[in-house]
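DM from R.C. (forwarded with permission)

"hey, sorry to bug you on a friday — could you get me a structure for this? deadline for the figure draft is monday and I only need the backbone to look sensible"
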Amino acid sequence: MAIRTIRIYGDDLLRKKCRVVDDINQRISILIEDMKETMYNSNGIGLAAPQVGILKRIVVIDVGDGLITLINPEIVEMQGSQLESEGCLSIPGVQKSVNRPETVKVKAINEIGEKIIIDGEGLLARALCHEIDHLDGVLFIDKAIEDEEK
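My reply, with the result:
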């Protein structure tokens, strides 16, 4: 496995829409392993394939409760809202407030091709939304809410 280079803000690839994964083959499995290693090496809680230069609908997330790998994830339900500060491995040193749902339900397939449903709340809901946005070329700064001056 290998640690891949994380694409940084300004790289046009981060603004592109990712393609659906049709076949979980050896190349996809290697990509997923590399993404996990890259995320952990960078002290991140999530990483999407376009952040390592691959336009495929794959994300890995670990908010401290164990690793989640999602292929072709789709948000099917959202409830509530939470306004918290976010950062991104592709935009180092930047933190902005973003309003996200408090809970989400995501359907996807896992790395062995099984259909799964993930119910996320709080930080996991935020991470799911953030990483799935990457798959559509959306960055958290696009959704940032400017803090009001006091």
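R.C.: lifesaver. The chain has a mean pLDDT of 96.
me: no worries. Residues 26-41 form the longest helix (16 residues).
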